[in-house]
Structures are given as C-alpha cells and as structure tokens.
Amino acid sequence: MSEIVKVGDKAPDFELQRQDGGFFRLCETLKGKNVVLYFYPKDNTSDCTKQACKFRDQYEVFREQGAEVVGVSSDSLDTHQRFEKIHHLPFLLLSDKGGSVRSLYGVPRFLGIMPGRATYIIDKKGIVRHVFDSSTKPLEHVNKALEVLNRLNPEQETHKKSKAKA
C-alpha cells in the first residue's frame, strides 16, 4: 500500500473507466471544479446504497458549490451501470478493478479485510482539503463533504443566504 494521502497533499492523478465505458482522469476534472472523491466497498449493499442515494439527493447542492462527486469501488462496469440505473445516480462511478487507485490513496481496509470507505475533498488546484475515513458512518461522508465545501466556497454560502432572504 502507498503512503496515506493526507490533508495538504497534492491529490494523486489517476485514470479509471467510468460506468458509461469512457475514461475519467482526475486532473482533467479538476479544471475549475472541486472534487468529492469517495471510495466505497461495494455496489448494492445496504450502507453503500444509502451513501450513494444521499450523494444523489444532495447532488445539486454539490454542483452549486462547484464540485463534482465521483464514487470509486472495485465493482465491474456492468455492476456500476445497474447501480446507477436502479438508484438514478447523476454522478460518476469508477471501476477500480484490482484496487490500484484505492491503494494509491492509501484507503484503509475495514476490519483489515474489507475495502474501506473514505472521502477526499480536493480543491480546484488539486490539493486535498479534507479526508473523512469511516466505514461505519456512510451518511456522514456527505455531510462532512458539504461542510468542507461551504468553508472552501464562502461566497457560495453568502449567495445562498441572500437568495433565501429575497
């Protein structure tokens, strides 16, 4: 396993296949956007489904914050496609067969055997601004990501408050 990626580190670039069969490259997505990169154990399991649906339900808020949500697991493209379709997921799911990107980021394993759950908030310059690692609190990943994005984009929060008063 690689060294664990920490707050303040440059996010390691990578390329993985998307659920639509195309390719995703982190450095290309970062141009003008923050990225919420979340690693999860497996499509269609209870906690992973809850987490994906919470990201889905908050997706427009993430977009308003100038962020792209990207989910990564070792599931196949076919499994990702079914997961996306069943749950109407508007964000990217990437297939990390063999776990090379999970290893590159140093995502810890749960109980030493299962793929762990970790979320990295990466700013527009490619710097990791927050890491949240908890396999037992899947919904907290969404809440923490939004809190961090609010701190990174204070003008967005001010704009939302002024719109709410109008």
Main sheet? 7 strands, mixed
Shape: globular
Radius of gyration: 15 Å
Approximate strand percentage: 15-25%
Query: What percent of residues adopt helix (DSSP H or I)?
Result: 25-40%
- What is the string of SSEs from the N terminus onward? EEHEHHEHEHEEHH
Average pLDDT figure: 86
How would you write the strand order of the largest sheet?
Answer: 2-1-5-4-3-6-7
- Category from helices, strands and their pairing: alpha/beta
The count of strands amounts to 7
CATH topology descriptor? Glutaredoxin
CATH architecture: 3-Layer(aba) Sandwich
Low-confidence stretches: 157-166
| Annotated CATH homologous superfamily | Glutaredoxin
Structurally, the number of domains stands at 1
Specify the number of helices.
Answer: 7
Q: What's the CATH class label?
A: Alpha Beta
Tell me the distance between the termini: 52 Å
Catalytic activity: a hydroperoxide + [thioredoxin]-dithiol = an alcohol + [thioredoxin]-disulfide + H2O
InterPro entries: AhpC/TSA, Peroxiredoxin_AhpC-typ, Peroxiredoxin_BCP/PrxQ, Thioredoxin-like_sf, Thioredoxin_domain
Subunit structure: Monomer.
Active site: 48 (cysteine sulfenic acid (-soh) intermediate)
Question: Care to describe what's here?
Answer:
With 166 residues, the chain is an alpha/beta fold. The chain has one domain (15-165): Glutaredoxin, CATH 3.40.30. 40% of the residues lie in helices and 21% in strands. The chain contains 7 helices and 7 strands, in the order ββαβααβαβαββαα. The protein has a 7-stranded mixed sheet. Helix 2 (46-57) packs parallel to helix 6 (138-152). The longest helix has 15 residues, at 138-152. The chain is globular. It starts with 14 loop residues before the first strand and ends with a helix. Mean pLDDT is 86; it is low at 157-166.
